[in-house]
Each structure stands twice: as structure tokens, then as C-alpha cells.
Amino acid sequence: MERYKILEELGDGTCGSVFKAFNIETFEIVAVKKMKRKFYFWEECMNLREVKALCKLNHPNIVKLKEVVRENDELFFIFEYMEHNLYQIMKEQQRPFSEGEIRSFMSQMLQGLVHMHGNGYFHRDLKPENLLVTKDFLKIADFGLAREVLSMPPYTEYVSTRWYRAPEVLLQSSYYTTAIDMWAVGAILAELFTLSPIFPGESEIDQLYKICCVLGAPDWISFPEATNISRLINISYSDISPTNLSDIMPNASSEAVDLILQLCSWDPLRRPTAEQVDVHVPHPLLCDPLEPRLNNMGAKPNLELNLWDFGTEPDDCFLGLTLAVKPSASNLEMVHTVSQSMEEDILFCPRLNDHPEQSVRSSTHQLEFRNLLGLQSHHCSLTF
Ligand SMILES: Nc1ncnc2c1ncn2[C@@H]1O[C@H](COP(=O)(O)OP(=O)(O)OP(=O)(O)O)[C@@H](O)[C@H]1O
């Protein structure tokens, strides 16, 4: 970590503290997330959900994990640096966002989600703080709670920040789907119009109550879990009528209001998928604008030698909770021992002549693992 000069603290989360830092070798500004717990073995690091998910997810709207460093039993994630998060932007916003700005944020968030859900992951903690923004470009961050869609329920541990938590999670359903992310998208979309949270519950029960106050009582027939709500909240649902969303967000078009209502459907099956939502952005981004070298490269990196399969070890314990996740075969692959220059990387990609762009891309997206304790004295590079 001596290559990094810490500049300032950016955030202090549940799992780690995040710092802005300067790489004295490459002159690059990065974000360093220092994990709070200790890591005594590399395997523990590799089993972390955040590492597993980010190794698989390579997309312009998903924050890039550049490097993982373990030093003195402490673990550091080195991410590309993003200037703001959406929470800060909304807090400082002096005027309502234009619908064009909101469409742009939404479109980018949805493209990231299409990629994530399509690759078998759901995020489970989407919220404005986890949407990082640099110059109008948005990337989804914080994969500490991400998990594989095909992992086995029941999902019992803490999931997502309360205000963005889907009703099925509040009702402690042990089975939920990517639709929980779509609920959060609906709540975030509403907040982009109002600049304040739409369901600001002060407790889990109050959260359900606040949702009822906006959406009205759930439909008992199409959302059977609604019966649990009456047990939790001592109120008569017929007394709660829905709020007219156009009254609280006069700046939203009827299409936007309609989309929020669809995304925030009580019944998860009625929520559109990320792929189904079309926010009509005139010029959607096709490549990572913050990574100029990668323009026009949409294909996945060419992967070469197999280094590591996560195998059948149990998943990482998030906040000490052991999870019954069946890890999928990882596509982490070793391309070569680390080299700093792209030219050297390319030498190790045998199919370079066939697919030059893919090889360059894989070298650029190398994930460098260093063990500074010398347990693994070599220095290897993983591409994904
Ligand atoms: N790549 C980055 N660039 C700039 N700031 C970042 C970056 N990653 C994280 N941050 C900042 O640090 C904060 C905390 O990061 P993160 O959410 O990853 O940590 P966490 O411990 O998992 O937090 P949480 O308690 O929200 O789960 C973010 O809200 C964001 O403001």
C-alpha cells in the first residue's frame, strides 16, 4: 500500500472506510476501501461477495475494482475514483432535475442492472449513496451485499437500507428475486423528482406504513404476503388511500409517475425487469466514458489459462453470517504474471492477432492481487 498516498476520507460504511488516494507510480487518483475486519488468508478475500461479483461484472455503469491488496491482515480494495454519489448530489441540488437529467441517471443505472441481473447477480442494497457519479456518468457501487440469483434461498440476513427496501424483504420473505432491486430503482426514481426519499420509514413497521401511505393498501389477492402486514401494523387498510404521486412530484410526467408505480408494485412479479424499462435516452452510452482507451470495445475479454475456481467453499461470511450460497464456477482466469505495461500484457495473450481489442481490454481490466506478507511471494494478475 506504500504506492498509495491517502488524500482524504470519502465515506465510512458498514464494512469499510473509503479514502481518496493517489497512486504515486501511475499518478492515478483512486478510491481505497479499507475493510474493517481482518483477513488472515487470501482465500477469505477471494470468497468475499464484493470481489466475486465485481470480478464477473465488467460494465461502464458498474464501478471498477482495479486491485485487491492484503497487507498485515488488512484488506484494501482499490476502485476507480468517482467524484460524487447521488445522495450528495441530490442534497446539494438547488433546483429540480430536468427530466432529461433523470432519464440519463435512470438509463445508466438500468444498463448496469441489466448487466448485473443478466450475469446472475442482484445488488440488494441500491440506494443513492451507492450510485457514484462523475461528470453526469453514473456507476453502481458497493457490492458487499450482492449475491447470485441462483444461490439457494432462504435469504435470511440483513438486506438493504430500509428506505429502499422492498415489501417482501420487510415482510421477511425468505425468497426474493432481482425484483427487490427494481423496487429500489422505483424509490430512487421518485426521489430524483422530489429530492427527498419517498418512503422515509423510521423503523421496519413505519417503513411499511409509509409505503401504504403512498401506494395505498396492498392488493390482498395478487400479493398474498399482504396479510402479514395487517399483523404487523395495527391499522385498518381501508383507512389508507393512496397518494396521488403527481401531487407530490408535479415536475414528473405521467409516464414517469406510471413507471414509479409499476416499479413500486407491492407484488414483485408485477415489477418490470431492468431490461423491460425503456427510459428513452436520446444518446445512450455504449462504452465507458471515463475510460477513453476502451472506446468501441463491447466484447468480453478473452480469457486464457484457468487460475482459480472458487470451488465449493462456502460463501464469505458477511458481518459474520454464514451463507448457504452455492458459488458458481468463476471465470477468473490467470493471463500472466503481472506486468505494468500494456505491451507486456499483450505478449501473453495468444489470440491477440485475432482479437486485438479484447486482449487490450483484458489487460486493462486486470485485477492485481498482491500478497505483501510474502505468503504468495509471486505477484499475479487476474483478468475477468
Ligand atoms: N469508487 C469510489 N469513488 C468515490 N467514492 C466512493 C467510491 N466507493 C465508495 N465511495 C464512497 O464511500 C462510501 C461508502 O462506500 P461503500 O458503500 O462501498 O462502503 P460500505 O462499507 O459497503 O458502505 P455501506 O454501509 O453503505 O454498505 C460511498 O457511499 C461513497 O460515497
UniProtKB/TrEMBL annotation:
Ranges where the Protein kinase domain occurs: 4-286
Alphabetic keyword roster: ATP-binding, Kinase, Nucleotide-binding, Phosphoprotein, Serine/threonine-protein kinase, Transferase
Pfam family, one: Pkinase
Source superkingdom: Eukaryota
Enzyme Commission code(s) on record: 2.7.11.22
InterPro entries noted in UniProt: Kinase-like_dom_sf (IPR011009), MAPK (IPR050117), Prot_kinase_dom (IPR000719), Ser/Thr_kinase_AS (IPR008271)
GO molecular function: ATP binding; cyclin-dependent protein serine/threonine kinase activity
Reaction it catalyzes: L-seryl-[protein] + ATP = O-phospho-L-seryl-[protein] + ADP + H(+); L-threonyl-[protein] + ATP = O-phospho-L-threonyl-[protein] + ADP + H(+)
SUPFAM superfamilies referenced in this protein's UniProt entry, alphabetically: Protein kinase-like (PK-like)
Claim: Cell membrane is one of the keywords in the record: no
Similarity comment: family membership: Belongs to the protein kinase superfamily. CMGC Ser/Thr protein kinase family. CDC2/CDKX subfamily.
Protein name from the UniProt record: cyclin-dependent kinase
Native organism: Gossypium mustelinum
